[in-house]
TrEMBL record:
Compartments, as annotated in UniProt: Cytoplasm
Amine oxidase domain span: 14-549
UniProt similarity note: Belongs to the flavin monoamine oxidase family.
Record protein name field: Amino_oxidase domain-containing protein
GO MF terms held by the record: polyamine oxidase activity
Cofactor(s), by name: FAD
GO cellular component: cytoplasm
Alphabetized Gene3D superfamilies for the sequence: 3.90.660.10, FAD/NAD(P)-binding domain
Classification via PANTHER family: FLAVIN MONOAMINE OXIDASE (PTHR10742), PEROXISOMAL N(1)-ACETYL-SPERMINE_SPERMIDINE OXIDASE (PTHR10742:SF405)
Length: 557
């Protein structure tokens, strides 16, 4: 009796479970493969980690469906009725409207000042993403379009290495300069306490840059490639969170698989594969070319392995002498892995002290802690509040997870996100409370367009206090070593395609005894246009499952 091909999927995250689901549902009636998923951790979901805090369901990892139009995640969520719940959930009311933008020192900034910088920033990003075109722009947008064109031209001519080296960071900065030139003379030196108009604009612009750092995971936007930004695709429609938790999607994908197919606590130490046809198979199972070594010392012979570990894990493995791949990955693979970016983004949840909860209503109100957008003082000067810790200074916002919730959420990126992981809860509560108090405590000095006034009505009124915190730790968890991928300056979309190529390299297998498709690659970082997302991971899982299905269909099994 011929042996069934044995397929092992490494990783029970979105990509791995989607591949398993596809392989299993497409062949279960034919009983074609021996299939299993091996997961190094003690839970399924990977970078999807639905959790609970202060009685509310929250997400430690993937949070949003980025556009519901055409998203396979949204389709599943609808089918399994995961989009409604009696219990409140994170961001159930979307992005809270009407953010309150406050400048360091407690100056509430007039919305018209915030809006002009926010519009500039949005238009610059739309331009970079290929969404802003001169013909479709309204007359006001046309000015921004000219600013953006000028910014990209200046960057290109200064780039030293041409278009491919232009970063989003330098493009944005040129855009801000061009914008300032277009306003030259207007209100330039007007003062508002410690603030001038120019400093305020700078601070608001930086605030948006900080949000962009969390969207992309590029800790430094000058390392985020400009040209690749326009290849990234978003689905149309609103962005929503999943009422029953992102994990409900994962559980659904896993639910069709027979018990035992997913093995937890099975960390792979090494993948021994056969890149050369002439090398005889010296293993105990001569027909299966790949030998998996697990951390517990056990081994397994397989025909195909689908690797879904994060780009962060791959980067760490190729940097080691005896890494995960034996023999090591060929250079076309390791070069793509090294060039692409993989950053750190962390989420911090904070429980407001009940002192702030209005009497008579225990949990549902928070005394209206606002959707606080923080414009930090851009210069390292004595005007800065001394007690605000450095790791808070690039957080863009702090806001309740839904209207009136007493749980607040703050996103961190880059080295601030890394630092957060090793701080104690006390240090975090102290630093965040000091920061938010300094923004909210004083009677607000409202910055209007030409003067500032003191106004008592709007302030939080007392010291902000927190009673507990919960934070994600994506960088220090050895199963992830970061959050999601981005196209770094020096890499391109081609590298994402290279990430997806199976081994041995296509073309090397023909006319030889070499086993094809020994190692396949799926995961968020293998999708050229939807990298960094759950749906990108989903599509990559389908892609690699179909690659194997087509392979076997082709030989008439
Ligand atoms: C903070 C944060 C916020 C995010 N927000 C969003 C969002 O709003 N919307 C969105 O679409 N996406 C978001 N993402 C990205 C999204 O979570 C990921 O793109 C997606 O979940 C990745 O799935 P994956 O299957 O490619 O990888 P993973 O989920 O990383 O799965 C890989 C699995 O491999 C396992 N593994 C690793 N090494 C080994 C080994 N040696 N042996 C065995 N198993 C191993 C890991 O434990 C893991 O379970 C966010 C991510 C983070 C961290
Ligand atoms: C407040 O909490 C108490 C117990 O903790 C509970 O009995 C009461 O119903 C709660 N009140 C409201 C308005 O939620
Ligand atoms: C909080 O930080 C301040 C300095 O920023 C320090 O003086 C104080 O002792 C800290 N408190 C705690 C409880 O750590
Ligand atoms: C939040 O609280 C305010 C006043 O405390 C109230 O007017 C508002 O309706 C509440 N919003 C929600 C969504 O509960
Ligand atoms: C996943 O969530 C749990 C809390 O439910 C937390 O302890 C764990 O650290 C999270 N994982 C990561 C990598 O943040």
């Amino acid at each position: 009796m011929a042996k069934k091909p044995r397929i092992v999927i490494i990783g029970a995250g979105m990509a791995g479970l989607t591949a398993a689901n596809q392989l299993y549902t497409c062949t279960s009636s034919k009983d074609l493969f021996e299939l299993c998923v091996v997961e190094g951790g003690s839970r399924i979901g990977g970078r999807i980690n639905t959790s609970e805090f202060g009685g509310d369901r929250i997400e430690m990892g993937a949070t949003w469906i980025h556009g519901i139009g055409g998203s396979p995640i949204h389709k599943i969520a609808q089918e399994i009725q995961a989009l409604d719940s009696d219990q409140p959930w994170e961001c159930m009311d979307g992005f809270l409207d009407e953010p309150k933008t406050i400048a360091e020192g407690g100056f509430e900034i007039n919305p018209s000042i915030v809006e002009s910088v926010s519009t500039l920033f949005k238009n610059l990003m739309d331009f970079a993403q290929g969404k802003l075109h001169e013909d479709s722009a309204s007359s006001e947008d046309v000015d921004f379009y000219k600013i953006a064109i000028r910014a990209s031209k200046i960057c290109t001519s200064n780039g030293g290495g041409g278009y491919g080296k232009l970063s989003i960071g330098s493009f944005l900065r040129q855009g801000l300069d061009a914008y300032r030139d277009s306003l030259r003379g207007q209100e330039e030196h007007q003062g508002y306490g410690i603030w001038t108009r120019k400093l305020l604009e700078e601070a608001i612009f930086e605030m948006h840059e900080n949000t962009q750092r969390t969207y992309t995971s590029a800790g430094d936007l000058s390392n985020l490639d400009f040209a690749a930004e326009s290849e990234y695709r978003m689905f149309p429609g609103e962005e929503i969170t999943i009422a029953r938790g992102y994990l409900s999607i994962i559980e659904y994908l896993a639910s069709v698989l027979p018990p035992g197919l997913i093995q937890l606590g099975r960390k792979v130490a090494q993948i021994e594969w056969q890149p050369e046809a002439h090398k005889s198979l010296e293993n105990g199972d001569a027909t299966r070319p790949v030998k998996l070594h697990f951390c517990d010392g056990s081994i397994m012979y397989v025909d195909h392995v689908i690797v879904t570990v994060s780009l962060g894990v791959l980067k760490a493995e190729i940097g080691q002498d005896s890494g995960m791949f034996n023999p090591p990955l060929p250079s076309f693979k390791t070069e793509a892995i090294s060039r692409l970016g993989f950053g750190v983004v962390n989420k911090l949840f904070l429980q407001l002290s009940p002192n702030h909860v209005e009497k008579g209503d225990n949990t549902t109100t928070n005394n209206n802690f606002p959707f606080l957008q923080m414009a930090f003082h851009p210069q390292d000067s004595e005007l800065r509040h001394k007690k605000i810790p450095w790791w808070m200074r690039r957080a863009a916002s702090l806001s309740p997870i839904y209207s009136n919730s007493s749980v607040l959420l703050c996103w961190f990126a880059g080295k601030e996100a890394v630092a957060l992981e090793s701080l104690t809860d006390e240090e975090i509560m102290n630093g965040t409370a000091t920061t938010s108090s300094s923004f909210l405590k004083q009677p607000h000095k409202v910055i209007k367009s030409n003067s500032h006034e003191v106004c008592n009505g709007n302030s939080w009124g007392s010291e902000v206090k927190f009673t507990k915190v919960l934070k994600s730790k994506w960088a220090s968890d050895p199963l992830f070593l970061g959050s999601y991928s981005y196209v770094a300056v020096g890499s391109s979309g081609d590298d994402l395609d290279t990430m997806a190529e199976p081994l041995p390299k296509i073309g090397n297998c023909e006319s030889s005894s070499l086993h094809p498709l020994q190692i396949l690659f799926a995961g968020e970082a293998t999708h050229r246009t939807h990298y960094s997302t759950t749906h990108g991971a989903y599509f990559s899982g389908i892609r690699e499952a179909n690659r194997l299905l087509q392979h076997y269909h082709g030989v008439g099994v």
